[in-house]
């Protein structure tokens, strides 16, 4: 039986106050369970990134409730429970690529030897082994993003969140990264939630949550996936 990792009930997120207030998310009611592969699609500014930040505990709702029953509560104090691939640069400048990948594991109590071995393996999976000793300033945007993906994979999280993870990648690396994310999630029994503008990425995932004006609509899976192989959506417009 799949475990509920994240549960949102009537969640809203507003930025600013008064006339300047912007409601980024309205009435988000959704559940993410182990093993689910979910694409969050929608135009720029629709709230995709806010949804992922709320799921990760990196942002707090201004209304409604969000809980993490399958993660033992708020994951922000436990490195490794949630892996987040950010849309922008997220590597620590003083550390090499392999040190960036190993850091979350060290913070979670993994031994240095195991962290180093898992970091090297993860870099190889994303075709970045040759970059292991480079500093972030020596990497292109696409190379840095592949290292950021490796950092998440190596930590073996229960919930993988990726915010436009292929935005800076060419077609070859785009397909490779999505394949690695999906295969890793399946191997770990983790959930994978990816926000994306790219329909070629979205159709690789089993469920699609379409967001419009800060509201998640009834989810739809890509046509090649049989109806019996999908979890019914929780969401309504």
Characterise this structure.
- The protein is of the alpha/beta class.
- It has one domain: P-loop containing nucleotide triphosphate hydrolases (Rossmann fold), CATH 3.40.50.
- Helices cover 30% and strands 24% of the residues.
- The chain has 6 helices and 9 strands; from the N terminus they run E-E-E-H-E-E-H-H-H-E-H-E-H-E-E.
- A 6-stranded mixed β-sheet has the order 5-6-7-3-8-9, with helices on both faces.
- Strand 1 and strand 2 form a beta hairpin.
- The radius of gyration is 17 Å and the shape is globular.
- The C terminus is likely disordered.
- Pfam families: ABC_tran.
- InterPro entries: AAA+_ATPase, ABC_transporter-like_ATP-bd, ABC_transporter-like_CS, ABC_transpr_LolD-like, P-loop_NTPase.
- Keywords: ATP-binding, Nucleotide-binding.
- One of its GO terms (molecular function) is ATP binding.
Fold blueprint:
Elements: E1 4-15, E2 22-33, E3 37-41, H1 48-56, E4 63-67, E5 82-85, H2 97-107, H3 112-125, H4 141-155, E6 159-163, H5 171-188, E7 191-196, H6 199-202, E8 207-212, E9 215-216
Parallel strand pairs: 3-7, 3-8, 5-6, 6-7
Antiparallel strand pairs: 1-2, 1-4, 8-9
Helix pairs in contact: 2-3, 2-4, 3-4
Compact overview of the structure:
By secondary structure, this protein is α/β, with parallel strands linked by helices.
Tell me the structural class.
Answer: alpha/beta
CATH domain class name: Alpha Beta
Q: Give the topology string: H per helix, E per strand.
A: EEEHEEHHHEHEHEE
What's the domain count? 1
- The beta-strand count equals 9
Q: How far apart are the first and last residues' alpha carbons, in Å?
A: 27 Å
Give the strand order of the largest sheet, numbering strands 1, 2, ... along the chain. Answer: 5-6-7-3-8-9
Strand content: 15-25%
Architecture per CATH nomenclature, i.e. the level-2 architecture: 3-Layer(aba) Sandwich
Helix content: 25-40%
Going by CATH, what is the homologous superfamily?
Answer: P-loop containing nucleotide triphosphate hydrolases
Mean pLDDT level: 89
Rg calc: 17 Å
Q: Quickly count the helices.
A: 6
Which topology does CATH recognise? Rossmann fold
Characterize the overall form: globular
Low-confidence stretches: 221-237
Largest sheet: 6 strands, mixed
